Amino acid sequence: MYQLKAVEKKFPGVHALKSVDFEIKRGEIVGLVGENGAGKSTLMKVIYGAYQPDGGTVMIDGKAVRFQNPRQAMEKGIGMVFQEQSLIPNLTVMENIFLGYEQQFVRLGVINWKAMSAAASRQLAKVKLDIDPATVTSALSFAQRQLVELAKVLTLEERVDGDLVILLDEPTSVLAEDEVKMLFAIVRELTKRASFIFVSHRMDEVMQLSDRIYVMKDGAVVDVVPQGGATVEQIQHKMVGRNVDREYYREQRQKPYDASKVLLRMDGVSLPGRIKDISLKLHAGEVLCLVGTEGSGREAILRTIYGMRTPVAGTLQIKGQAVASFNPQAAVSAGVGYVPRERKIEGIVAGMNVFENMTLSQMGRYSRAGVLNVTAERALARDWIAKLSIKAHSELADCGNLSGGNQQKVVLSKWRSGGSDIMLLDHPTRGLDIGAKEDVYEMIRDMSDDGVGVILVADTLEEAIGLSHSIIVLKDGAIQQRFDCLPGAKPTLFDLLHYMI
Amino acid sequence: MKRLMTRENAIRWAPMLVLIGLVILFTAINPAFLSQRNFARIAIAAAPALMVAIGVTFIIVMGSIDLSMEGTVGLTAVLFCFAFLATGGTLAAGAWVAIPLILLLGALIGLVNGLVHVRLRIPSFMASLAIGFVGTGAAVLVTGGDIVKIDDDTFRALLTWRIAGFPLMIYVVAALALLAWFIQSHTTLGRNFYAVGGGEELAHASGLNVRRVRIMGFVLAGVFYAVAGILQVAKLGQAESVSGANFMFISITSVVVGGVALWGGIGGIWNTVVGVLIVNVINNGMVVIGLPDFLQDGMLGLLVILAVVLSTDRRSISFVK
């Protein structure tokens, strides 16, 4: 019924979808699995019309179609239930359900709320949600909102002639077990109304719900597994089965760390709802990787160390000093540097030039009585531009106009030039092309040589294994397992996945 | 690859071109516009407004807004007169003390403003608007609605003593604009304003004390408002509770016309200087070409919209609130 044939999608430097064939039949539930960066989200975006494919065809009932935007896809019966929910919290449930489609209830410019409420109740009944449609959305629980979102997508049923295809993006990631069961029951029942594409990191759930599972790797579909056709382990092998290139991660440059010098020590640190009882040590010259799925507590650990969150239990010691007050200023002055995932939001200030960005965290060193020594700042920036071969026309270039890789280099040099010796890197290679990634790997090895301790949340598992001296696997906020990663004796992807999911 | 007419450059120079265009336009209609005497007149009219506009520029660069200027200017002007009279009535007799005293008062009002905004987490426009009203009210209270006059020739020399045709106060204002530029581009505080305006999350994540930066911004703005208050007295020789009237519209439109982005991080003192000149040239030009005064306000409004259209880059933002 819905079909993709040899669909291609390219972004600058990334071949995101490589000749993907995909098919979904009426009333079918299809699972879609793959590692981060395997191309799942790109494929979803092509399906619901947010991206236009560069090649190949999209077909509905054998006819080729082309969507300019998600709305056109919706008119053909393709709906998306977003992971980050798309409901507007200050509107009522019924307003959200019919957002953008209120016209059907309008007479002489006035909305007939009763009719809308009745219609909304009908939608909510489909997902077995018994709430007043006039409830303000923010008053609902997360699971309820998820169902409202589903109900909203199901309004397509009345608007569209053909069959429905509904994408569910990580719908269970924040649900409790019984809520997941309820959601699955509802989805199964709804298969008489629609087909579903189910995307999740939780392999057992995908196996449980799906009739068929598409396994993606590096932008291509590597296998299609029918229900019961493979074990969790076999699918995981398909997801990651590739040769790790040691050269690529600069493994030959990995040297043993200085075990006598503890830079950072966490003991029994807990943040309610995020992490529990985390204990770890970071040594000089060590690259410590935190591995886990989204929401497993990796970021919370970084943010705690950086002082953006205050733990309710446990202690954090930086270079032997117990941290008393948790705030970024204190962390920075203790030598902690943080490279956040959202480069655009927390990494660089667009509109400020290279040298201003570099000295942002260390203006005290470049000023006397509040007056800046711009000459020294610019000299520093020129120095690092040369050292890291940052592609900027000069230190006066606006950072907002640099490429992602060069922005990341600016962020890294900001901390390195300030003498930070505990570096927290959250997805430092996200969105970078291969060359820029290799530059970042090179810089991480340089930092280790200088005795810097690095805590890394890597973009892929290979990256984590390739770069790290030690790996800590997290699940639901708790440490599952710790691995030593000596060159030549590294754990396999499968070892890690086993503890992750 | 260097191109002269990039979009970036066009945006940067647009306010200057608008200013030059206006001067040419008014001169074409009435050649008397282009005279040194008239320019001096424009400069005098612009001087206190420039101080207010510079003050609010720091706030706008941070992405906030300050609407307390009318109250602050009014109160500082009135209290300056009282302090001046109380400390001798002439500069020579020791009344100069009133100047640092009032600058300190401006800083204090700014501090209260900043604390209310940051500590009580009230949006800056609301906090400062309220403080502004408190200021105006206080000015009425201390004057009882009367006018306070100052009669000191040495002080009034700010207006009367002319060098190369321009009164002394213009040079004072020019020096203070230079100082403001120095603060903006050569101090950590100035850099911090841009960091907060360009990315507050990031400034925080870089270990900046964002709350302190915000409060300091309001303090600095308060000092510049106090300067404007003193200059108002120098210009008119008197003060009353409404001495700060109209500064809100003039200063904020000037800042925006000059190309400082209201969402923060973009533009600076030079944009503001050009913006103040644009608004004052428009004002003066309409008088010179003999537009009836009932048309002038409306025309000013229209020209301001036109100038904003020409001089700011509005394509980079998706929603205007």
UniProtKB/TrEMBL annotation, chain A:
Keywords, alphabetical: ATP-binding, Cell membrane, Membrane, Nucleotide-binding, Sugar transport, Translocase, Transport
Alphabetical list of PROSITE patterns matching this protein: ABC_TRANSPORTER_2 (PS50893)
GO molecular function terms attached to this record: ATP binding; ATP hydrolysis activity
Recorded superkingdom: Bacteria
ABC transporter domain ranges (all copies): 2-243, 254-501
Pfam entry (one): ABC_tran
Keyword Repressor attributed: no
Protein's recorded name: Sugar ABC transporter ATP-binding protein
Species of origin: Paragemmobacter straminiformis
From TrEMBL, chain B:
Keyword annotations: Cell inner membrane, Cell membrane, Membrane, Transmembrane, Transmembrane helix, Transport
UniProt-annotated location(s): Cell membrane
This protein's record includes keyword Cell inner membrane: yes
Entry keyword Transmembrane helix: yes
Listed Pfam families: BPD_transp_2
Membrane topology: Multi-pass membrane protein
One GO CC term, this protein: plasma membrane
Superkingdom classification of source: Bacteria
Transmembrane segments annotated in the record for this chain: 12-33, 39-61, 73-92, 98-118, 125-143, 163-183, 215-234, 246-266, 273-292, 298-317
Any one GO molecular function term: transmembrane transporter activity
Subunit structure: The complex is composed of two ATP-binding proteins (LsrA), two transmembrane proteins (LsrC and LsrD) and a solute-binding protein (LsrB).
PANTHER family: ABC TRANSPORTER PERMEASE PROTEIN YPHD-RELATED-RELATED (PTHR32196), AUTOINDUCER 2 IMPORT SYSTEM PERMEASE PROTEIN LSRD (PTHR32196:SF71)
Its job: Part of the ABC transporter complex LsrABCD involved in autoinducer 2 (AI-2) import. Probably responsible for the translocation of the substrate across the membrane.
Name this protein carries in UniProt: Autoinducer 2 import system permease protein LsrD
